[in-house]
Amino acid sequence: DLVPVSMQMYPGNESEKPYIRKVIEEMKQRHNVSGKTIQVADKGLNCARNIYAAVKEASDGYIFSKSIHGKNLSEKEKKWVLLENDANVFSNYTDEKGNISFRLKSCIDSFDYSFKEINPETGKESVTRFSVKEKRIVSYNPNLAKKQRLEIMKMVDKASKFSTYKNIAKDELGDCAKYVDIITKDSTGKTIKPIIGLNKSKIDEDLKYAGYNLLVTSEIDMDPLQVYKTYHSLWKIEESFRLTKSYLDARPVYLQKKETIYGHFLICYLSLFLLRVLEIKCFKNKIYSYDLINFMCDFSVVNKGDDTYINISRNQSVNEKIKKLIGFSNLDALYLTKAEVNNFFQNCTLLDTWSTGFLKKQRKSGYIV
Hints:
By secondary structure, this protein is α+β, with helices and mostly antiparallel strands.
């Protein structure tokens, strides 16, 4: 259900890659997880050390995305991404209108990995090499390809305006920096006046691979479509971050002490957890967390003083959704009696009692401190 069950905070100037290993190990111990845990993450957490920790140290699995660009793949692997013949067949998946939504192809092979690690006791660096039998899945989305090509050409257009080194010093290159070549030495190695040009090979490569994505997984028996759908469920986690930052005011943080910062994020985390429980368990995914927050912030009534109330809520579309799910036929009525308002509060109390009881059960189990 993608309900958040663990949170880890770490310094912003450190890599998140080691922390994912720590989070998963602590979570498995806390919840007595003895089965196989499969990590699903984007390329930001895809590194040889995390793969080694998952399949070699913990006997777990992974589904990671992997960058196609740069030195992340060999030339042979890059050619395979685009290759389509009798032995490399793409399967087409269409929408309701028959248009291609995305295409998939896969292969299974053994791939070599290595990583460097410093021994904390001796201070010496060692290299670990290992091999993993891996399924690799290439996806191609024509709509994404169109969008990415437009973004690339926009950056190329910006990069082409930097004709001199002086211009670059004055302006911010941003993402288009990868398309700019600055030559400061000639063929003999002698320092020359900087020459600015476009990195045409990089532009051609990015245009060629627009719309393509590569997924790597240890789950070789898993159907490629299932792997694709599992990976793309990450949007729900991204939505949780947006909810926490935008609607629950997790950021910016106007705090300095470590304890108060942790307390702030703990409140935000528990709020997100309860919102997801309400969305999934109470409303059966028929109403979203955004709607719940908007309803709670917007629904207001004013006491007229004669045991009647005026409903001053403005978001009628959200009220309509709540009304259908809960059965409050007069939720959007302009005038409400005291009995009707009390009925609203009674139902809210029941909901609050249910969520409080749920938390108490989790606290007794040791899941929430």
